[in-house]
Amino acid sequence: MRRIRYRGHRPDDLPTLVRLIRTELMPMSHTVSPDDPVVLAGLPERFDSGRTIVAAPEVGSPIGFVHFGEIHGLLHIDMLVVDPLSRGTGIGLELMRRAEREGTLHGSLMAVLFVDDVNEKARRFYAREGYEPVRHFPDLKVTQWTKSLQPSGQ
């Protein structure tokens, strides 16, 4: 059984999240390398600049997480990662919906995120969840996606 909780309740949270970033996100990035010491050194501060919700078994390390923050009415989804062995179980969807709910509670009217062009699975996931591509950045090989967080009809 898994539970959803905030990052930081266990000492192995940060190393596990960094491993997931290195193995699942960074290889898709056009702009960073999984072994870039500057990027890796900045991850603890990056996590401290927002909130992180993790999915983890009752006993054990995180198997997924979403990192996000709010600014000027926007919910910025910074990272969403699920361990490959746990994909297809609804964890990513649950984490995303938790982040969107928190954004709404903090006054965000819209969610925004960026997806690497090569990450076709993520593109399909976000499209299914109501996100729309709004701007492509060819030099970075990423696309910005947005979704209204306002209830329909408002």
UniProtKB/TrEMBL annotation:
Keyword Ubl conjugation part of the UniProt annotation: no
Molecular function via GO: acyltransferase activity, transferring groups other than amino-acyl groups
Keyword Signal part of the UniProt annotation: no
Coiled coil: none
Annotated N-acetyltransferase domain residues: 4-150
Alphabetical UniProt keywords: Acyltransferase, Transferase
Name of the protein described by the UniProt record: GNAT family N-acetyltransferase
Organism in which the protein naturally occurs: Paenibacillus albicereus
